[in-house]
Design brief:
Layout (H helix, E strand, L loop, with lengths): L1 H38 L4 H32 L6 H21 L7 H31 L8 H22 L4 E2 L19 H23 L1 H11 L1 H6 L4 H27 L1 E2 L5 H14 L4 H23 L11 H15 L7 H7 L1
Antiparallel strand pairs: 1-2
Helix pairs in contact: 1-11, 1-12, 2-6, 2-9, 2-10, 2-11, 3-4, 3-5, 3-9, 3-10, 4-9, 6-7, 6-9, 7-9, 10-11, 10-12, 11-12
Length: 358
């Protein structure tokens, strides 16, 4: 009897804490937003500027998150080496940009600049795809039928291996991306302050995400991937090549990460052997936020996280008198993740995934 009473009291205490946490966060968000807006400190142009920055950053997170969510959807594992796949694409784009810059093609005209970026993205996608396929073949496939903890440890090991392999080849220094004059200029769009590089990142990400969604939903290979994701044994009995579907999933996710590596580097203009760690963690957060295993959820989660990271610190904290709120962007991003998961543990679009695959 006493044991049941203790259990009920414990459950009540946990529920009280969770509801208190929710109320405190909601109160901070609502009160801070109200005080910031009524203060009139920031004009409409500033908010639009923050929204554009969030959209460009969120587009990169979404592209990386697609790899996490697709691999989880088909293998039920978290590919912690995916951030390093992203890093490999950034390095590939850098060396391609150097060659094009030395040839005088990179900044010859706006048209050649866009062609150069397209070439960089294609090369980065190819290198990232090669890395991902090798990692899948050498590190993951032999462990496919082992307990889930084993592939997880292998993924962490593959992450460190790729990090320090790149460090061994290229050193610990920072590589500065060659500047593209055209992309640093303001785009002539009325009522919108946006640079060409940000517009390029957003448009390129939307196009690639749309193509990926159509590939998964409308093609035979995409149908096979979805079938393997639902049930590998049944898919194999229906004549689907399971190994091919898994490799294709790794390749497609890696291609998106490689393209994201170039787009990210074009915005921040530098790359190191460690550059994939933070974006990788943020993209994994975005995948969980949207609903891990759900492709549209990864896209939505990435965009949501980017906007919260850009607008949230100023909107929520500036009105409360918090100094330098932009330095707390990571705290805001992960707090919002916790808040969303407290109310919706499966993520924004993850109800079906939770019900079918838990």
């Amino acid at each position: 009897m006493n044991r049941r009473l203790v259990e009920r009291l414990t459950e009540a205490a946990i529920a009280t804490f969770l509801w208190s946490f929710r109320l405190v966060i909601v109160l901070v968000v609502v009160l801070g937003s109200f005080l910031t807006i009524v203060s009139g400190k920031y004009d409409l142009e500033t908010w639009v500027r923050l929204a554009v920055t969030g959209a460009s950053l969120g587009s990169v997170y979404a592209l990386i998150a697609l790899g996490y969510t697709m691999v989880y959807g088909i293998l039920r594992m978290i590919n912690f080496a995916h951030g390093e796949i992203f890093m490999g694409g950034a390095f590939a784009g850098y060396f391609t940009a150097v060659v094009l810059d030395d040839a005088g093609f990179l900044n010859y005209s706006p048209v050649t600049a866009l062609i150069s970026v397209a070439i960089m993205i294609v090369v980065a996608m190819a290198i990232s795809t090669l890395l991902a396929v090798l990692v899948e073949r050498l590190a993951y496939r032999p462990l496919r039928n082992t307990p889930r903890l084993v592939p997880l440890i292998a993924a962490i090991g593959a992450s460190f291996f790729l990090q320090y392999t790149f460090r061994g080849f290229f050193g610990p220094g920072i590589y500065a991306y060659p500047g593209i004059d055209f992309l640093s200029q303001q785009a002539p769009i009325p009522l919108l302050t946006i640079r060409w590089v940000e517009l390029l990142v957003i448009v390129a990400a939307v196009v690639m995400m749309t193509v990926l969604y159509l590939f998964v939903m409308r093609t035979r290979i995409g149908t096979a991937i979805r079938a393997v994701s639902e049930d590998k044994s049944t898919a194999a009995l229906m004549g689907i090549d399971v190994n091919r579907s898994i490799v294709t999933t790794f390749a497609v996710g890696a291609a998106m990460a490689g393209a994201a590596g170039v787009l990210y580097a074009l915005m921040f203009r530098q790359v190191t052997f460690f550059v994939g760690f933070i974006p990788g963690i943020k993209a994994f957060t975005a995948a969980v936020l949207g609903g891990i295993g759900n492709v549209p959820g990864a896209m939505l989660g990435g965009l949501f996280l980017g906007e919260i990271e850009s607008i949230g610190p100023v909107l929520f904290l500036d009105g409360l008198g918090v100094p330098a709120p932009s330095q707390l962007k990571d705290v805001i991003a992960f707090t919002m993740l916790v808040l969303v998961l407290v109310f919706r543990p499966s993520g924004i679009l993850g109800e079906r995934v939770t019900k079918d695959r838990a």
